[in-house]
Amino acid sequence: MKGAAKGLAGLIVKPVTGVIDFASKTTEGIKNNALVFEDKANGERMHYPRVFYTECFVMKEYNKIDSQIQSILMKTVNEDKFINVTFVDCFASDEGVNYLVILREYIVFLDVEKRKVLWALPIL
User: Fold this and answer.
1) HSE (CB half, 13 Å, CA atoms) of 114?
2) Cβ atoms of 65 and 31 closer than 8 Å
């Protein structure tokens, strides 16, 4: 009689525990999925976008300084003239604080630390 009672109890208890386990795992999955969307991506770039050189859009090995300079030129406030320029090369001065940048359209002198264009001369 003991075995029959255990069998009948198992017949009722096993499905109930299965339903409870199913509900528990489902809510855990929903919670974990909701937390994935709560994490925000890093607002800052890992590195600046790659520079394409000359009007043929030549791609050289990634250069952090060139990419940073292009980013500064693209984000220069009230200076739309640097949006569609062709990057040629840049040269450092003053221990890498100031750079002389050669673009197809301009020669630019900028301060990288202040992220500011000091002067720009159009090339005729």
Assistant:
1) 9
2) no
Global pTM reads 0.55
- Find the Cα–Cα–Cα–Cα dihedral 99, 104, 107, 113, rounded to 10°: -30
Q: Where are the domains of the chain?
A: 1-39, 52-122
28-60 confidence digits (pLDDT tens): 888 877 766 666 666 666 778 888 887 677 888
Q: How far is CA 80 from CA 73, 74, 102, in A?
A: 9, 8, 17
* Residue 15: pLDDT over 80: yes
List Cα–Cα distances, 66 to 15, 63, 122, in angstroms: 66, 5, 20
